[in-house]
Amino acid sequence: MPGSVWRTSFGQDRAGLIGHTLDPDKLEKKIPENMSRFDMQLSMLEPMFDQKDSPWIFSTSVPSLADLAMYYQLWWGVEVAKGHFINNLTAGGTEDTDTEGAEAVFNAQRYPGVFTWYRTMQRYLDNLPSVENKDPAFGEVLQQIKKSPSLGRKSLLLPTPRSSHTELDRKCGLVEGSLVSVAPDDTGMNDPTVGTLVALSPEEVVIKPQALDKPAEIEVRVHFPRLGLTPSPRQQDPPSTRATLPPSDFGRLQDIIVRPESSSTDDDDSLTTQLWSAEVSDDDLMYLRIMAQSELVRAIGSRIRVLREEVAKLERLMPKEGGQTMWRKDTDRVRGDICALVLQRWGVEKVS
Question: Which SUPFAM superfamilies match (predicted)?
C-alpha cells in the first residue's frame, strides 16, 4: 500500500485497530519485503491453475466462495498497490496515483495461470447485473425489521455436533445473562463489542449489545463465530470519565471543531484555551484529533470542488475554437465578460 495512505486519518484508525503506532516511513521501506512475500504466495498458487478443466479454483460452473475470497486479496494487491481508489479509502486524505504497484511480480509472463484466472474473474464480476436497491427509506426498512418474527431459543444458534459444554463455559465465566465482551484474537482486541450473553455453542456466541447513550431504534442480537474471536466475562464498567467532567466540556470541543469560523462570536473562548483547560481522556483527545483532521479534509475537498466549478465557469466565458481563445467582436459582450470575471474573482477572494 502506498506510504501516503498511512499518513492520513486512515492510518490512525488502523493503528487503533492493531493496537500500536504505525510509522508511515518504516512501512514504505518495507514495500520490497512485502512484494517478495507476495511473490512467494503467487508461486504457491500457480500450480492450482495448471491444466484445469474449469476456469475457477474448483470445478464449478460459476465462481465459488474460494474464488471470491482470493480475488479480493489479489484485487487489493493490484489496484490499491498502484494507488487506485486511495482517495476514497482515506476519505480524501490523499490523491489517487497510478504507479507500477505489484506488476513486477504479478503479470501474465511470471504467473500465467493465476493472472489468467484473475482477468477471467474480473470480467465475470464486471458483467454481473447490478442488484443494488437504493429505493427504500431507512424508516421503511426499520418497520420491516420490526415486523419480522423473533427467533425462538432453539433457533438462535446454528446446528453443531454437540451443544455447549456448560461446566467448561461456567469456569470461563461465560454464563447466559452475564455481561461479556467479544473481540478478535489478532487485531481490534482493544475495541470489543460488549453485551449480555444470550446463547452459546462450541462454535458461536450470541449477545444483546450494551445500550449506548442514544436509545436503540430496534433491539438486536449479534452473532459471532468463536473461531477467531474470544468471548470473555466483563465487569460492569465504572462510571464514565466523561460523565464526571463539566457537562459541556467534551461537547464544547466538538462544537468548536465542526463550527465554521464565520459562526464564532466574541463571547467564545479561543480554541487553544478550551483545549488546554479541558480535562479529557487520551481516547477522547485522539477522537477529537481525528475529527479535526476529517473536518479539514472535508473543507479542502469542498473548496477544491468550488474552485473546479469556478474554472469551468471561466472556461465557458472564454469561448474557444481549435483550442485557441476567441476574442469577441461585440464590445458590449466584452464589457460583460470583464464585469463577470472581476465579480467572480472578488467572490473567490472573499471565500479564500
Answer: GST C-terminal domain-like (SSF47616)
